[in-house]
Amino acid sequence: MTTNTNTNAQVTTTTPRLDLARSAPKVFRSLIGFDAAAREGLDPALVELIQIRASHLNHCAYCLHMHTNDARKAGESEDRLHMVAVWREARHFFTEREQAALALTESVTLVADGGVPDDVYARAADRFDEAELAHVLSLILTINTWNRVALATAKAAGTDQRR
Predict the structure, then answer these.
(1) Which of 35, 57, 58, 56 is nearest to 47 (CA)?
(2) In angstroms, rounded to a whole number, what is the distance separating the alpha carbons of residues 49 and 79?
(3) How far apart are CA 100 and CA 119, in angstroms?
(4) How far apart are CA 87 and CA 82, in angstroms?
(5) Global pTM value
(6) Residue 21: left if φ>0, alpha if ψ -120 to 50, beta else—which one?
(7) pLDDT for 23-37, tens place per residue?
């Protein structure tokens, strides 16, 4: 049984959900390709911070577990991992570029709550060149897609089977 508290109401899942990789392999491979292309040229630590923050906001335990583990394996500190959710109150843990990327991640992830404000976009554009910004934005789009895939298919945290 999986409990999803993505909204104020609890949704309990007892019925099996499809495996997107098996049921739509071409779609799944396309998502993997999009994700790989989005990461190109970005600092791996920044990639994980973006993925962790979006996963927090989307309440995606599956992806949060996966990306915090990936970040640890890549050498990320426990202190920084604990501070991602409250990065504004712990800015000294993050570089200006990371802060700009986290702010953009929040705005894009929560786009329905008011779009992407000009100041948030301008801050990111000041800290990343055009190609980097395109990759940061693409990465934010991919993690939001992965979060939705994991939530819609009721993936349970700790069951990552990547090789």
Answers:
(1) 35
(2) 13
(3) 10
(4) 9
(5) 0.89
(6) alpha
(7) 999 999 999 999 999
